[in-house]
Design the sequence.
């Protein structure tokens, strides 16, 4: 039997993905990276430059396992993160399963740069609102070793996944998971609130590629053309921010709609070197100033 290395399997798989009409966007944006994610993720290989992962010769059972996952990716359109049970975000690996969306927010880039120049000082308390599996808040805790982080999430299953990720990084009690409908169960004040809430309208959900159908609808759907939850966050966030606190809010491609709705508000859209859009930053003062327009 011809020998198959990790590298040759990935090259063939990338070709196969190129000829398919798969949808990317759950952590990768091209067939080659998708193939690498599947193979390295499934076999728990090291990305370390010193490791001989590309030259590793695949065993018969590894080949069978990979072929099964490839079939599930192609036939059932299951995103790779759910197939391999892990996802990378802001340079960290997280447990990933259908209890929460697969991490992919451009906010990772802001965490890498410690939110410069948006923050005047390192935050002492951070809120990740609509936390899902907790990737944003946990990455903040790892980036700011002195700060406390609350992960607030409505879905009990997603809270369990977030708790498992907190345990993975041994961050309890510095990082807490709180079951909360937006701010309803929260009592603290935060220097930084980051939220990647659901912002997809009912109409848009129906038109999304099959891959998104494997993710929980609660993580995607927001009424009022996608703006109901983002607007509620804009209305309530000031009450939970410290005097120089900042809200970072992702609304993705609902950016145009929000800009139209809030024409006179300087929404502070952020730019990303590594791709992504639809993330805004507003200070507590700005949120208070424009409060009446968020209704
Ligand atoms: C777009 S996902 C973001 C998950 C994670 N923060 C990330 O960036 O990958 C939105 C999350 O908000 C949660 N959610 C939906 N409605 C909520 C609400 N009213 N209060 C709190 N969380 C909510 C969903 O369960 C889902 O986990």
Sequence:
């Amino acid at each position: 039997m011809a020998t198959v290395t990790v590298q040759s399997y990935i090259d063939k798989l990338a070709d196969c993905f190129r000829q398919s009409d798969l949808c990317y966007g759950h952590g990768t944006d091209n067939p080659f990276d998708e193939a690498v994610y599947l193979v390295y993720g499934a076999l728990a290989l090291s990305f370390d430059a010193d490791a001989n992962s590309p030259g590793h010769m695949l065993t018969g059972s590894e080949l069978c396992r990979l072929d099964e996952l490839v079939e599930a990716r192609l036939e059932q359109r299951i995103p790779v993160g759910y197939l391999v049970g892990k996802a990378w975000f802001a340079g960290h690996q997280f447990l990933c399963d259908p209890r929460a969306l697969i991490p992919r927010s451009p906010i990772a880039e802001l965490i890498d740069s410690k939110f410069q120049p948006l923050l005047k000082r390192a935050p002492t308390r951070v809120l990740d609102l609509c936390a899902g599996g907790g990737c944003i808040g946990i990455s903040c805790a790892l980036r700011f070793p002195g700060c406390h982080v609350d992960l607030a999430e409505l879905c009990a299953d997603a809270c369990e996944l977030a708790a498992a990720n907190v345990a993975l990084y041994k961050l309890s009690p510095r990082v807490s998971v709180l079951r909360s409908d937006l701010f309803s169960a929260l009592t603290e004040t935060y220097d930084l609130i980051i939220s990647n809430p659901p912002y997809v309208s009912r109409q848009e959900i129906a038109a999304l590629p099959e891959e998104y159908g494997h993710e929980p609808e609660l993580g995607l759907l927001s009424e009022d053309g996608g703006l109901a939850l983002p607007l509620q966050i804009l209305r309530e966030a000031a009450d939970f921010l410290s005097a120089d606190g900042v809200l970072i809010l992702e609304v993705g491609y609902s950016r145009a709609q929000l800009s139209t709705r809030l024409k006179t508000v300087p929404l502070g859209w952020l730019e990303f070197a590594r791709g992504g859009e639809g993330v805004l930053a507003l200070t507590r003062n700005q949120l208070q100033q424009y409060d009446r327009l968020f209704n």
